[in-house]
Design a protein that fits this description.
alpha+beta, four-stranded mixed beta sheet, 21% strand, globular
């Protein structure tokens, strides 16, 4: 499926930092798509030597779950689904040299979902994004 060591989610693959996050949410170039209960906001950015092909973050609003335990569970589910299937996006980005992706997965529902269902929705979003990248 992929090279050894790529089934991890390293610190470099996490989207952190105010500049890139602001670009992702307040720039005209960002796009989004949804597969309820998850919305994916993405932005094509320039690839650096030290930047991975895709950086991601997960957001679960407090209005969805008041208790942090539930918010953390959903974040864990989405991160795990991304980690197991990130090769879908990595293969698509590999074809476009000089391009990387900034991704944000945002939870939309106020109910907890089973892990396999969450994974199906995240994979659906990633496949749709890969198709969009390859169609350009």
């Amino acid at each position: 499926m992929s090279q050894p060591g790529t089934m991890t989610l390293s610190k470099k693959e996490r989207l952190c930092g105010r500049k890139l996050t602001d670009k992702l949410f307040h720039r005209e170039g960002s796009r989004s798509m949804a597969a309820f209960p998850v919305r994916l906001v993405y932005l094509r950015i320039e690839a650096d030597a030290d930047r991975p092909p895709a950086q991601m973050m997960v957001s679960v609003p407090k209005r969805c779950f008041k208790r942090a335990v539930k918010r953390n569970r959903v974040k864990r589910q989405v991160r795990e689904a991304y980690r197991k299937n990130k090769h879908i996006l990595y293969d698509a980005v590999k074809e476009h040299e000089g391009t990387a992706l900034a991704l944000a997965f945002i939870w939309l529902d106020d109910k907890l979902w089973d892990t396999p269902k969450v994974e199906r929705k995240v994979v659906n979003l990633m496949q749709r994004l890969a198709e969009k990248l390859n169609s350009r």
